[in-house]
Amino acid sequence: MSDLFFQLQAELEPILRAGDLRQCDQRIAAALRGLPISPFHISLDLHFTNPPDQVAREFDAFFRRESQSFLIAAAYTETNGFDINTNRWYFDFLAYDTYGGTDDFDWLCDDCSAPWPGMTLTGMESLQAVYASDAFQDRSCRDATYVTSLLVVSRFQLLIAQASTFMRELRFPILSTGHDFQYISEVRPIA
């Protein structure tokens, strides 16, 4: 793993906890711009194109189904391991009967929800091709690879935050990240 990758996450943690996802995204993008040009730099111009209202409708359907079985205290979503699963990027839906906070995320291993189909992410197909290429194994791109992965997670978190404003069933925090990332954001419903 890249030292820059961990340093950047540690630096951004207080900003992430404060909920300033845009600033986090801008700082990750600035860190990538500061690295030698690589094929991964195309990520700077890419965003997920899933319409936030459609994402919200899928979450609402999931929340309605789960709320028939238990009182939802928190929700969680993560992307698949996108760096090694380049053919399809998607995210999962999970719900919990307790909220364990943001000090220790071990509670995210114990969801209460039944399986729900993952939703395909769109808009970054050209970056998926870069991850599928030899550039992913190129040691000279190591920092760019890791910072780009953090940028992908950041862009996903922005999508979830946007979608949350359309969610009619959201009455609890929703957390988001990428698979195997500890860089986890939390969005709370608008009161």
Descriptive notes:
The protein has 191 residues and is of the alpha+beta class. It has one domain (3-187). It is 39% helix and 11% strand. The protein is built from 5 helices and 6 strands. It has a 4-stranded mixed beta sheet with strand order 3-1-5-6, with helices on one face. The chain has a two-stranded antiparallel ribbon with strand order 2-4. It is globular and about 50 Å long. The relative contact order is 0.23.
What's the gyration radius in Å?
16 Å
Biggest sheet, spatial arrangement of strands? 3-1-5-6
Separate helix tally: 5
Order of SSEs: HHHEEEEHHEE
Helix content: 25-40%
Largest sheet: 4 strands, mixed
Distance between the termini: 40 Å
Structural class of the secondary elements?
A: alpha+beta
User: What overall geometry do the principal axes of the alpha carbons give?
Assistant: globular
How many E-type strands? 6
Residues in β-strands, percent: 5-15%
How many discrete structural domains? 1
Low-confidence stretches: none
Let me know the average pLDDT. Answer: 96
Annotate the secondary structure layout.
Elements: H1 3-17, H2 21-33, H3 52-67, E1 74-79, E2 90-91, E3 94-96, E4 119-120, H4 125-132, H5 142-164, E5 174-178, E6 185-187
Parallel strand pairs: 1-5
Antiparallel strand pairs: 1-3, 2-4, 5-6
Helix pairs in contact: 1-2, 1-5, 2-5, 3-5
